Amino acid sequence: MHTKKQLMDGIRRRTRAGAPWRDVPERYGPGETVYGLFRRWQRDGTWHRIFEQLQAQADAEGLITWDVSVDSTIARAHQHAAGARKKGTCRSSRQVVCSPSPTTTGSDVPEVG
């Protein structure tokens, strides 16, 4: 029988390493048992309560800075970087009729004859 401390150490090791539950070393208990404790505590809210208590303790000790920074910067790639066609160009491999640039008006088109 494994102690709860061993199972909790197994949960910590698994979450730190990012490994599958089946790869938790046997010294922490069978992977199914370690996962069972983790999942049970997740369902009943134990992990959330632990987080809230640790957060409250850290806040009381002044270890948390509650500054909020909101940044509305947007990063967009240029349309041609995404493969969009450029105005007035045609690719010879496609059977597409090229149209004049949208900025061209009827008065800008030279008359024939």
Look at the structure and give the mean pLDDT: 80
Radius of gyration: 31 Å
Give me the count of strands: 0
Q: Which structural class should the secondary elements be placed in?
A: mainly alpha
Fraction in helix: 25-40%
Q: What amount of the residues lies in strands? A: under 5%
Envelope shape: elongated
Note the gap between the termini.
99 Å
Low-pLDDT stretches? none
H/E series: HHH
Task: Let me know the largest β-sheet.
Answer: none
* Helix count, DSSP H or I runs of 4 or more residues: 3
SSE layout and pairings?
Elements lengths: L3 H14 L13 H14 L1 H15 L53
Helix pairs in contact: 1-2
Pfam families: DUF4096
Protein name: Transposase
Description:
It is a single chain. This protein has a domain at 4-60. The chain contains three helices and no strands. The chain has helices spanning 4-17, 31-44, 46-60. Helix 1 crosses helix 2 (31-44). Residues 90-107 have a biased composition (Polar residues).
Concise description?
The protein has 113 residues and is mainly alpha-helical. It has a domain at 4-60.
Features:
113 residues, mainly alpha, 38% helix
